[in-house]
Amino acid sequence: QVQLVESGGGLVQPGGSLRLSCAASGSIFSISVMGWYRQAPGLQREMVALITSGGTTNYADSVKGRFTISRDTAKNTVELQMNSLQFDDTAVYFCKVRTFTSGDYWGQGTQVSVSS
């Protein structure tokens, strides 16, 4: 079992920045991929950014060049630095981890709102 706790969401103006953090606990030795997804009202949940245990990253086209995902294996955290935020970035952001042994786990979600 893996438990995830997210933090860092909030309200920001267009062009602003936020940093999301997700702390993992439990069976952390089995974590392979860590990532962030988001879900806007009325839309399906979508991948935002992923990072593997080896540090390989993958981003949605809509956030490339603006968002950066990072992972601290010593602290068992994954962070998402979000810059140049746009109205369309408004969503609930979820941390997700994939494990080698017991599938996927999701955080509770944190709201990011971009508004003037």
Structure explained in plain terms:
- The protein is mainly beta and 116 residues long.
- It is built from no helices and eleven strands.
- Strands 2, 4, 5, 6, 9, 10 and 11 form a seven-stranded mixed β-sheet that branches.
- The radius of gyration is 13 Å and the shape is globular.
The separation of the N and C termini measures: 40 Å
Structural class given helices, strands, pairing?
mainly beta
Gross geometry: globular
| Tally of helical runs | 0
How many beta-strand elements?
11
Q: Sheet bearing the most strands, described?
A: 7 strands, mixed
> Which range does the strand content fall in?
over 45%
Which stretches are low in confidence, meaning pLDDT under 50 for 5 or more residues running? Answer: none
Order of helical and strand elements: EEEEEEEEEEE
Question: What topology emerges from the helices and strands here?
Answer:
Blueprint: E1 2-7, E2 10-12, E3 18-26, E4 31-39, E5 46-51, E6 57-59, E7 67-72, E8 77-82, E9 91-99, E10 104-106, E11 110-114
